[in-house]
Amino acid sequence: SSTKVNGSARFVIEGEGANTIFKVDDVGDIYAWKTLDREEKSIYHLRAQIFDKITNKQLEPTSEFEIKLNDVNDNAPRFTHSIYNGSVKEMSKPGTTVLQVIAVDPDDSSVSGHARVTYSIIKGGENFHIDLDTGIITSSNILDREQQKTYELVVKAKDMPGYEGGFSSTASVIITLEDINDNAATFTKKHYTISVLEDKPIRSEAGMLQIEDKDEPQNTNPMFSFVKRDFRDLFDVVSDNITKNAIIVLKQPLDYEKVKMYTMEVEVTEITTVPPGKREVQGNTRAMVFLNVLDVDEPPVFQRPSYFFSIFENASLGTHVGTVSAEDPDEAQKIVRYSINGGNVVTINKDSGSIKTSNNLDREMNAWHNITITAVEDGPGGKESTVSMFLKVLDINDNSPILDYENDLFVCANARPGKVIKTIAASDKDEMTTGQKISFYLDHAHSNFSLVDNHDNTANITLKQGGFNPDEKKTYFLPVVISDNGRPQLISTYTLNIVVCGCDANEIYSCTGDYAKTGVSGHALAVILLCIVVLVITLLIAMRRNIKKDSLATLGKSSGEIHEQLVSYDEEGGGEMDTNGYDVSVLNSARHNSMRPRPEAQPGPCLYATVQKPAAKGEMAVMIEVKKDEADHDRDGIPYDTLHIYGYEGSESLAGSLSSLESASSDSDLDYDFLNDWGPRFNTLAELY
């Protein structure tokens, strides 16, 4: 300061460490009151002021200054890790880098030697070298993992290079050698003995040959082979995925009775990273294997894996089919017995294995028979085995051809000559092999129809002459003969009915007799059903009224009398056509006959009638006789004879209405005029409605 300082001045400092680390006295000297460490803080920034002690007036402007600490070598270098781990592959060339160690000195690097670090190996440096300045560690020799796996080093870092003084520190370095496949696998023994059962399954392990390899498992890749090729078809030798040992595998089944022991030589080889000749293989690369086959009680063995026999159908019982044979493969050569499991078409001789028929064989029912035959060793606990036998039933011509269509045929009355009426087909249950066919022909010539064989098991029925008159003849009979060409030849005869029908322009058949017209509309069918319902209701009403009348008549009869009663029903039927089946004049006379009481009868409302037997034995007459006979011989019924005569007569019957109830049909709003267009069969129905 330019101001002259005297005893009246007072000094004041402010800033980093003021009045704590640093203090100023009355004359302006600054002192350090604590130990200073440059590595913690190297520069302090402060401000200084001067005041008059009396007036407390600042004598000079505030001035700034800094205090800088000078470095001394008071810190040792420090490694970033206390223990370093590194690795290098075995057999690496000298000079291969392993790892780098790093040490840091916190002293001022601007001061010569204070922060400069140098490296050295103070322990285990026989096989490694460390760079003095960088700390990179390299190998100095070729190393073998199989001799030593790990190496432990101690490295030192020191400052003030070139001076005996200074500070230093140490760290540990562990170096591991990585394995490579540099050693070949060898057998642990020169001779191996293996025992295996003869029933060992194929592709299973027969035995194991142990090996040794100094390399780690991931670098052990042995390959095995038989020195001689004699056993390569029987056995295979492979490496186990985990242990790498040699595994002998069966490729074919063993048979103690044929070969009891196998002697083979196995060789092991391995490709390594060491060039051939650089390292001599130590150990057994070949080994002798003695494989003993152990005997097992085996089941009988059939001469064939399966049997196939054939026989003609309908062969007589006891016909020889074939013979099966099985033997005990063991040295004991036990006797073998045979049996059949299921099936009743053949039998087998338990001693010889001869098979004969025991039932009739029909190829058309079953052309193949699958039979299981069992062979079992004689004696307790005998082993057994089975074999399949396939029996084919050969065909003989024992079935006549069959016509596939036997329904009636229809032909239009106005059909032209040459018209194909129907193509008929035939089949044969016998085996239709190549060349087998069915022939068609007529039993005798027909003037109206012809039969043309199509030579494909079908034939056409063709019209020779046209212009039929349905009123003269409605049905023609056509005798058709079909035959096969088997030995012996079989023939079938069929008679086909050909019905003549009226046809419209679209050849829609309109047949009379028992054949109804096709194509009736739904409306017409509904009308027919309605008519049937009305008739049924009318019949039920009439029956109910007659039952009431019968009950009244029964009340007036004496219990000791036997009466005959005629109950008539006026039930309408199909019309005038029914008159052909029964002489209704008899019923008519019965209806108009005067009803008179019998002299011995008690007064009552009972009616009696005398019925004369009709001359013609029609259906109605037979029914009357049956009913009367049943009533006369019914011992359990009440002592009354009730004769129910069912005369289904129409409105135009000669007897007229047989009903005394005079039942009337109900009126309907429907228009039934279309019934007049249905033809003569529906004339009666049209008049009723």
Automatic annotation (TrEMBL):
Q: Major location, coarse class?
A: other
Q: Report which superkingdom the organism of origin falls in.
A: Eukaryota
Mind listing the UniProt keywords for this protein, alphabetically?
Calcium, Cell adhesion, Cell junction, Cell membrane, Cleavage on pair of basic residues, Glycoprotein, Membrane, Metal-binding, Repeat, Signal, Transmembrane, Transmembrane helix
- Domain named Cadherin: which ranges? 6-79, 80-187, 188-302, 303-403, 411-509
The cross-references to InterPro entries, in alphabetical order and at most eight, read:
Cadherin (IPR039808), Cadherin-like_dom (IPR002126), Cadherin-like_sf (IPR015919), Cadherin_CS (IPR020894), Cadherin_Y-type_LIR (IPR000233), Catenin-bd_sf (IPR027397)
Which residue ranges traverse the bilayer? 520-542
> What is the role of this chain?
Cadherins are calcium-dependent cell adhesion proteins.
**What is the protein name given in its UniProt record?**
Cadherin-5
**What is the native source organism of this protein?**
Polyodon spathula (North American paddlefish)
- What is the name of the gene encoding this protein? Cdh5_0
